Amino acid sequence: MISRQLTEQGRFAFSALCGVSLGQLFTGPENSVFREQYLQGLVRWLDLDESVMPVMGAFLSGLGFEGSDTFLSILQAEHLLSAGATPIIQDLVSFSVKDGQYDARARVLIRHVSCLLRVSPRQLEEFEETLGERLREAGEESEERGRKLRRYLLIGLATVGGGTVIGVTGGLAAPLVAAGASAVLGAGGAAVLGSATGIAIMASLFGAAGAGLTGYKMKKCVGAIEEFQFLPLNSGKHLHLTIAVTGWLCSGKYSSFQAPWCSLGECGEQYCLVWESRFLKDLGSAMTSLLDGLVSIVAQEALKYTVLSGILAALTWPASLLAAASVIDNPWCVCLNRSAEVGKHLAQVLRSRQQGKRPVSLIGFSLGARVIYYCLQELANDQGVVEDVVLLGAPVDGSEKAWERMARVVAGKIVNGYCRGDWLLGFLYRSSAAQLSVAGLQPINIQDQRIINVDLSSVTNKTCKSCTKNMSLKKLIGK
User: Fold this and answer.
1) Residue 457 to residues 209, 341, 466: CA-CA distances in angstroms?
2) Of 77, 97, 124, which marks where a domain is finished?
């Protein structure tokens, strides 16, 4: 265990830094058991005396924050860290996965401590990917040897009655060796992975047979849901994964669920959720029809772009635009209802750990963001599953109460990407916008440092200007 090469003072400083960080990051009572068990396990892992636990408990309660700089200075003075703190961050990852579960809160803590110790996020990602590959390789080899062992045992049992006993050699009966794992985890960790317990750990981390989400497919209709499965975007072997949820489908470049995520970046395992494609295509077609009809509507109303913006902001819609609403209202309402049901089913999939016991980050736009919103509402009492969440243009309630409930589930950050001038979202939500705050149209006003509001108006305005050229509206809407 690399961290045991620290001096006793260094080990105390390391556990204290983690204790203070846990107290800062996870303040709610719903995380109290995790905080205490994690820190107690870390104290044992570092071979510290149990007598330090009362002090560690004080750090968990929020005391000792002012001592963080001192703890950092002690650690950085350690010989083991002379070339950087990467070794003990790697050891902290190994500690966090040793029981076959990588809690999302543990990963948020590791990211936080890595930042304090100036270990780059990329270094952490690379180590997790290497460790994930080693674990899977070890798991596959262990399973193969386990199958051979069972086969020989069955042959032996079958021939006992005939007087011929096939002895099982000590090599087959001994704990299986996880080749290659020692390069990452050390000899002690490799021995554990090579045992029967190690096989269980790998199955737990990566899901049944390591298939992850690609092995999951809804066997039959669940309620109103007709379609629900996962497609890989990036099939790397990693200790955490990302699920992207598309909001609608249209013709051309964005006719597939994977297309909007081509720029997501190649880190970790990534999947996109395939859901209710028939209805999402209907919605995309209706949106295209509405936008095509906007040319004649703008011409009839003789509105300049700034005037149109003012009317839409005031939710006083032109009569001709309201007349065109029948094109989109029905598919929109159908998809609103379906997205809520899909979100609840996604929560069941994550709760059952089809992805293995690894942290999951979620990103979605439009109705895809709504799927994630209902998933998190359903997971209200399941901490440690979801790491980070990004919602873009979410057609969901933006009230404080709703987001407080959702925030309890997420271990890391929740990003709300909104655009005040998203007139299409405002138009689609026109019947309820007067009663509800809509997350995709405004920032979320809640006192929680984990919730980050990002105004995307500058991005969408550039897109709109590009679109107007394609739609030959430049002359109609003014310079």
Assistant:
1) 45, 30, 14
2) 124
DSSP codes joined into one string, 207-276 = -GGG-GGGG-B--S-BTTB--EEEEEEEE---SSEEEEE-----SGGG-SSSGGGTTS-S-SEEEEEEE-
In a domain, 153, yes or no: no
**Neighbouring residues of 158: CB distance < 8 A, sequence distance ≥ 6:** none
Of the residues 77, 95, 124, which one is the last residue of a structural domain? 124
Query: For 453, phi and psi rounded to 5 degrees?
Result: -95, 130
Q: Which residues pair with 152 in a beta bridge?
A: none
Measured in whole angstroms, the distance separating CA 385 from the mean position of its chain's CA atoms is 8
Structure tokens at 148: 């051979």
| Count of structural domains within the chain | 2
d(CA 210, CA 195): 17
pLDDT digits (tens, 9 = 90+) for 130-156: 888 777 776 666 556 655 555 544 444
Could you give phi then psi for residue 309, rounded to 5 degrees? -60, -40
> What is the structure's pLDDT at 102?
93
The pLDDT averaged over each successive group of 10 residues in the chain (479 residues) is: 83 93 91 94 92 90 83 91 90 90 95 94 88 73 57 47 38 34 46 52 64 67 81 83 92 86 79 92 84 60 47 54 69 89 94 90 95 94 93 90 89 93 76 67 88 86 48 34
CA distances from residue 146 to 22, 194, 301 in whole angstroms, order as listed: 39, 10, 74
d(CA 140, CA 36): 34
* CB-facing half-sphere around the CA of 87: CA atoms within 13 A: 17
Residues 6+ apart with CB under 8 A from 407: 414, 446, 448, 450, 451
Q: Read off the pTM.
A: 0.81
Domain range for 51 is: 2-124
